[in-house]
Design a protein that fits this description.
The structure is a single chain. Helix content is 10%, strand content 44%. By secondary structure, the chain is mainly beta. It has two domains: 39 residues, no CATH class; 154 residues, Apoptosis, Tumor Necrosis Factor Receptor Associated Protein 2, Chain A (Sandwich). The longest helix is centred in the first third of the chain and has 7 residues. The protein is elongated. 22% of the residues are buried.
């Protein structure tokens, strides 16, 4: 009887996402929990998401970033692009790394489409902080401004994983800036998709 039960094979619950594995019926759930084709699950912390859309793909908008994963969605025409911005504290400040998340169907089949890895996405992040400094009874206005513009890599997450923020990051909020320890860092973002 056990041999009969072990001979019953069923498609993976994530077959629609490209998994071709056919586990035994009684191992189906165990396989589903570890399947590389399973839908992405956000980090256990609450995810933050900002959405930008419309005809002006490069229009600037403000995003509040917190430590951990932050999601940013950009819409161009009928296509939506999802970006993951990972904010991590580092000895020099806060490092921000960004990747574009490739849809599962494209990740599994590497099909060329309007949201394929061949699509070039550029992200521009700007941070400005103004404060008044009083040193030796002199009142001075101090302004810190920085802008970074970079091409965003693409990942399928299940196969590629995330870049290590201690090794690879595209934007940094320096530690010397007042407000660096605040829970939220407000940055201006602009997405250019070609």
């Amino acid at each position: 009887m056990e041999q009969l039960v072990d001979s019953i094979r069923v498609p993976c619950p994530h077959a629609a996402h490209g998994c071709e594995t056919k586990p035994t019926y009684h191992d189906r759930e165990a396989h589903a929990r570890t399947c590389a084709h399973a839908p992405c699950r956000p980090h256990r912390r609450p995810a933050r998401m900002a959405v930008h859309g419309g005809d002006h793909a490069a229009a600037a908008f403000y995003v509040n970033l917190r430590d951990g994963f932050n999601f940013l969605a950009a819409v161009r025409g009928h296509t939506q692009y999802l970006f993951l911005l990972n904010v991590a504290r580092a000895p020099f400040g806060r490092a921000v790394s960004a990747v574009r998340i490739r849809p599962h169907a494209a990740a599994a089949t590497a099909a060329v489409s309007s949201s394929s890895p061949a699509t070039v996405c550029e992200l521009q992040l700007s941070y400005t902080y103004c404060w008044n400094s009083s040193h030796d009874d002199l009142r001075r206005r101090v302004v810190h401004c920085q802008t970074s513009q970079f091409k965003v890599g693409c990942t399928g997450l299940s196969n590629d994983g995330l870049p290590d923020p201690s090794v690879s990051f595209q934007f940094v909020v320096p530690k010397y800036v007042p407000g660096h320890d605040a829970a939220i860092v407000k940055v201006k973002a602009s997405v250019n998709i070609t």
